[in-house]
Design brief:
This protein is of the alpha/beta class and 158 residues long. It has four helices and seven strands; from the N terminus they run H-E-H-H-E-E-E-E-H-E-E. It has a five-stranded mixed β-sheet. Strands 1-2 form a two-stranded parallel sheet.
Length: 158
Amino acid sequence: MSKAFTSEETDVTDVVAPRAPLPPGTPNYVTRRGLTLLRAERAELAANRARAEADADVAAMHVLGARLAELDERLASAELVEGQPKDVVRFGATVTVAATSGETRAYRIVGVDEADPTRGDVAFTSPIARALLGHEVGDEVQLRTPRGRETLEIVAIA
């Protein structure tokens, strides 16, 4: 008997890792780079699904189909944001901040799917981005961290 008809059948939602969530009612803002990455990811998934179809790999087809459906929803809701002013922290900006310790860090405020904190790319929904948005060079913002409250001064916006 086919494994697909046994009690060992795997629910595709258990296999497919969910995309980073957008809070309800939050627009799906993307940068030009983020939109390009989403489209490239979609092309790769479609090619992988076509290979799975050619190989008659039903399990892979289901998993890749679910990932494609989720990605298609994200692409359909994507709102490209470009041309933001550089004197105020906005979506797409790279913001350099100085901590009271003197340490400087740079954060680029991006869409949820493009976020990669190891590169300094933070989602616009993240606490650090929410603290910085709308502020100007010279402003100090307060950020609540696991170590306690931290004061950051905005030293540059690009």
